Amino acid sequence: MQIHKLKDILPSGLAGSISCTSDFSGSFQRSWREFRVFEFQTCVSSLDMAWELMGEGEMLPGDSVLCLEQTGGRGRMRRHWSSPRGNVYAALKLPVPDSPEKNRMLSIIVGHSFQRALMSRGVEVFLKWPNDLVVNAVKAGGILIEEKGGNILAGIGLNLKALPDSRELREGRLMDPVHLYRAWPGADPLSAWAELVYREQIWYDNILCNYSLIDFISEVKPYLWLVNQKVRVEQNNGVLEGYLQGIDGSGGIILECSGQIEHIQAGTLLS
Length: 271
Fold this sequence. Notes:
Elements: E1 2-5, H1 6-9, E2 36-40, H2 46-55, E3 64-67, E4 88-94, H3 100-104, H4 106-120, E5 126-128, E6 132-135, E7 138-148, E8 151-158, H5 189-210, H6 213-220, E9 230-235, E10 238-247, E11 253-257, E12 260-264, E13 268-269
Parallel strand pairs: 2-3
Antiparallel strand pairs: 1-2, 3-4, 4-8, 5-6, 6-7, 7-8, 9-10, 9-13, 10-11, 11-12
């Protein structure tokens, strides 16, 4: 294991922050310059390693784990996440929102924060509900939120250079994976992750401090993949078809189905 300070591995030329204009008290509580990255050559998963370090009292909000290779990475619904070397497999500890409304929106807030971090880096990316990052209509990464004992970890997998073996991909998937080699040439996992953490924490703090829930819902809508288009959503009791209108105050999606409005809190977006 190597421990890096974010300020020592961040690409030069990045600076700036957004000040908090509300009474929000759950921010990172320290400068991004003090954030640490615990780098491992191999681990079962970045999330597992982060929870282990957290149990030892080693991680503060803003600290993260980066695994260069995972042997047991996981995605949504406990699906296996293929983890070839060359990509980002990380877990970031985040401060807990002090607003119950924003806590319910946490997955979307974190997803949008990483989306905007990539956009500010020049990558044109959309957020596919509930947790995928989409570039050129194909999947470039995914985000998984885990909460235990009042702590929050955001796990993120991002295809920088490598793609998973096609034999490991889920049957019936909506899209194939893509890497960001052309969109982010020369990126290596450590420097790319440092830049993403820096840019993400600015947006995360900005949303929690300066956005009302209504403003955030309006902010996210243009960046949702397939917004205003006809989609299908797979649920336990079948498939629902309708036009994607945006997200609601609980982090679910709003579908307009034959003139009726439906709020979907769980499911898989198929098309």
